[in-house]
From TrEMBL:
Residue span, Metallo-beta-lactamase domain: 242-314
Matching Pfam families: Lactamase_B_2
Protein name: Ribonuclease Z
Enzyme class: hydrolase
EC number(s) on file: 3.1.26.11
Gene3D superfamilies attached to this UniProt entry: Ribonuclease Z/Hydroxyacylglutathione hydrolase-like (3.60.15.10)
Originating species: Geobacter soli
Key words, A-Z: Hydrolase
Transmembrane segments: none
MF (Gene Ontology): 3'-tRNA processing endoribonuclease activity
Superkingdom as given in the UniProt entry: Bacteria
């Protein structure tokens, strides 16, 4: 089965951070960090359902205005999540413009912003276009395990890192795949159809193998069916495999606690997108600026057992010497 998620960096590694993740079977995408979005065409911006912001330094949040401008006049709800103080930052950005004409718009573009706190509490608010993006419907809730979004097919999990300020790192975790063995269905004389989606949900939902399950289809205008146990269908006609895992880490001091949290978050990931601003020979400069070095980035990927490390957020000091950063990451990753 082809991968569900297709990730790519929005900009070159010397420019603003941002990771765009496209969904294979939906007109949908998510974005990690909101730096310069100019390389994203409007059609890609309009696919976004959620944006997860690590922190609001200018190179991670300057793209907010362009996203809002492209979404104006559309019936769309866009979710943004960031660290403590994020709702105030969104309020300030939207409050910087005059919205006297939007009350007549036929659509109501809505920004739903939320901020996560280290104790797991989450504070959210909504900003409706037709209400001139005034702050309303504020709520407080609590999340467990840093899970910011939990849907049928995937979840987004976060951890706090120290960048001199609280900074979030994110993991996009696809839940297990259930593959249908269609050759076995044909051999058993069973048709494909909507019942297969129900079967996948039953398996992924952890329902008991002993539960009865009806395989149904339409034939000559009539509904027909055959009953099996869920366990028999699972054993004979499906194969369950682990889903993708994509991790995004940026702007983190090279402290032991940060390293521990990154390794735990990234464990077994298919992709680790991780900052590598400086060579290790400049580790004092990196530490002073609360950033990782290329060597540490590679070591973290190795310690986490990831399949692939993708470095980014290179310091402009290395313009023309990009290969040095990439080589140091790769040496440390390969051990």
């Amino acid at each position: 089965m082809p991968p569900l998620f297709h990730p790519h960096l929005v900009n070159c590694p010397f420019e603003d951070p941002g990771l765009y993740v496209d969904f294979l079977f939906e007109r949908r995408a998510v974005l990690f960090d909101l730096g310069d979005t100019a390389p994203l065409p409007p059609r890609k911006v309009l696919r976004l359902s959620h944006i997860f912001v690590s922190h609001t330094h200018v190179d991670h949040f300057i793209g907010f205005d362009r996203v809002v401008r492209l979404c104006l006049g559309r019936e769309k709800r866009l979710h943004l999540v960031g660290p403590p103080g994020f709702v105030d930052r969104v309020t300030a950005r939207l409050g910087g413009y005059t919205w006297n004409l939007v009350g007549t718009f036929p659509t109501d573009f809505t920004v739903a912003a939320a901020e996560l706190h280290p104790d797991g509490s989450i504070h959210s608010a909504e900003f409706h276009c037709r209400a001139a993006f005034s702050r309303e419907n504020e709520q407080r809730d609590h999340v467990h395990g840093g899970v910011l979004l939990d849907e049928e097919a995937f979840r987004v999990r976060s951890v706090f890192l120290d960048h001199g300020i609280p900074c979030l790192a994110f993991a996009l975790e696809e839940k297990n795949h259930v593959h249908i063995l269609k050759n076995r269905l044909r051999e058993a004389g069973l048709p494909t159809g909507p019942w297969l989606a129900e079967l996948k949900r039953a398996i992924l939902g952890g329902r008991d193998d002993g539960e009865p399950f009806t395989v149904w289809w339409r034939e000559e205008g009539q509904e027909r069916g055959t009953r099996f146990s869920l366990g028999e269908l699972r054993e004979r006609f499906t194969k369950t495999v682990a889903g993708q895992k994509i991790v995004y880490v940026t702007d983190a001091a090279p402290t032991p606690e940060n390293r521990r949290r990154i390794v735990e978050l990234a464990a077994g990931a298919d992709y680790l997108f991780i900052e590598a601003p400086f060579l290790d020979e400049e580790r004092e400069r990196a530490g002073d600026r609360c950033h990782l070095t290329a060597r540490v980035a590679g070591e973290l990927g190795r310690d986490a057992g990831v399949a692939r490390v993708v470095p980014f957020h290179f310091s402009p000091r290395y313009t023309g010497r990009e290969s040095l950063l990439r080589e140091e990451v790769e040496r440390a990753f390969r051990g």
